[in-house]
Amino acid sequence: MATNLLDALARTDIAPAVLAQVRALFEQQQSMLVQQQATLGQQQAQLAEKDFKITALTHELAYLKRIRYGKASEVLSGEQRSLFEEAVEMDLAAIEGELEHQASVKPARKRAGRQALPPELPRIEHRHEPESCACGQCGANLVKIGEDVSEQLDVEPARFFVHRHIRPQYACRACESVTAAPVPPAVIDGGLAAPGLLAWVAASKYLDHLPLYRIEQIAARQGVPLARSTLAQWIGRIGVALQPLVERLGELLRQRTCLHADETPVRQLDPGSGKTRQAYLWAYRSGTWEDGPPIVVFDYQPSRAGAHARAFLQDWRGHLMVDDYAGYKALFAQGPIELACLAHIRRKFFDLHAASGSPVAEEALRRIAQLYAIEQDAAGLSPAGRLAVRSARAVPALDELHA
Description:
The protein has 11 helices and 7 strands. It has helices at 2-10, 16-69, 78-102, 195-206, 212-221, 228-253, 307-313, 329-332, 342-356, 359-377, 383-402; strands at residues 169-172, 177-180, 258-270, 275-286, 296-301, 319-322, 337-340.
């Protein structure tokens, strides 16, 4: 429109000098308008970026609050709640026992269904016969018509005993030589601990999560001195003795075609600094649908660098189920096929829905639940059967979710 106006002015009798000034003013204002539009576009982009950051921080704050104050704002972890419930049950049992002791008549109690004791446990029978086989009222002989059987579960705490290895020595007078049986092999040559004791110490530390000083106290209650320094040395020697087994498990694991991998941080003492630093425990697991029992191998490393996964898997090629951690990306470039974890995807939608009640996130959670239900229905099938169910039901559901 402004260009048309200039053309119309050019056809009039206005002096050329005036027309040049008008044209220059117009071009200046047009340039300023372009600059203002560019500035406005930048400001709008900055505002959109700030709105995105505010939304992301709001969701993150809601997520942290849910982690800190969630479940029903109890501020109790699952283990703490379990301990609290155990304490309440112990107090109730103590009160009921005191009432039974004080009362002359045992009060009737509603008992919950008791689970049957495992049949493979050894049974020690205790027979309780009446004091007399004659009737206490008429004196006639009693006849057995049945028996009442009840069972109580008992436990024998760690029982220490000693293996005495006696190796008689025989001498030959003719050649003046001595013959004796060879020394039995041991996990620790010349050590005090038998294999059973070493297994108990390792299971107590790594399965029952007992610190060595508590194992020391357990042994001390039975008069057996086991110093913590000695226990620590045993643990180190056990690790060396089991290393061939770990390596063999790793070899068998890498023969499987589908593996799961994950890493979790652990606190490690930093000698000399008086502090701890963060190390990582890498876990590798075989699929449960392949031949043979599932294998789990843990690889303790000082960092989360993806080079540790590449060093462990070596030249293995197969399908690897992982989260979206970037450390695995270089590994996939070398040949293994990535299987993405749907649970990690679902977690993001869950956090979004918990923070803002997003209907899109709610719809995604509903559709992912359908996929979980399909997997549950196919859990007991063979690999070919699961593939057929996934092709018929899961693939269309995934296509709809993508759309």
